[in-house]
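Exercise: predict the fold of this chain.
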Amino acid sequence: MGSFEVRAEAGSVVDVFSRDTAPVLTVEAGDVVTVESLDSSGFLRRQEVPGEQQPTLFAERRGHCLTGPIAVRGAKPGMVLAVHFEELTPAGWGWTATAGKDDWLMRRLRVDDAERTWLLWELDGETGTDQHGHTVRLAPFLGVVGMPPEEPGEHSTIPPRPEGGGNIDCRELVAGSTLYLPVTVPDAMLLLGDGHARQGDGEVGGTAIECGMTTRVRLDLVVDRPVPGIHAETPSGLVTFGFDTDLNEATATALSAMVDWLQIEQALDRGAALALASATVDLRITQIANQTWGVHAVLPTGVLG
């Protein structure tokens, strides 16, 4: 098993998904990679006051500032890439911004014509404190973990996608979690970034505590998983996902995959698996900020004796 490191710098950072981007690193299945990522905007220096527009790595950013791509030798469509999150360490500062844009949610919340509002967070590894004195316990994870679509060309980093992943924004994916992503292109071409020091389910204002992150992952290839689509094993439980422009469809996709999982794990027929899910499974809104609804179903650890 090899161990590698990728820094966030010009030449190893992109702001779109593309199968045609050359990899910055090629690894074998089972290798460990420590990945440095800047915050989603790619700030090169910390803000000294909330909202200060410091220089960014991309003069005209098109999407999230992501590190990679990392190629996994031998990966091909039909396989599943297992991303084991071994350690996630936030940078020493972060930011949250909301309002300042005109979309259906900001209009509904009556902040569409308000100036963009910023929180500036001091992060000490365990807690974060904003300029108003609010303190929260950190639970770091990466918002974007994914592979490019199989179609050639450049693709936005903003919406999550049902196979390759991307901007999933699920706060369950903390250290100790494994995210399973159906491989979309040869060699996987994985991108990582959009560090979040903490986020609530939904990412309701459009951003979390955005921060730089140092992430250690182990990358494996598997071919026999109990459920299709994107799913995860986390310290809090088993997780299945649904992504769609229709909230009902996203919900049904996440729940259907969890019922599949219960059928297999508990040796039940489908009706009995759904009945068991009704007593044990939590449905959560993953995020509402990314043009595509995200829903995840959670079977909590220890809920079944």
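Check your answer against the key: The CA atoms of residues 26 and 71 lie 5 Å apart.
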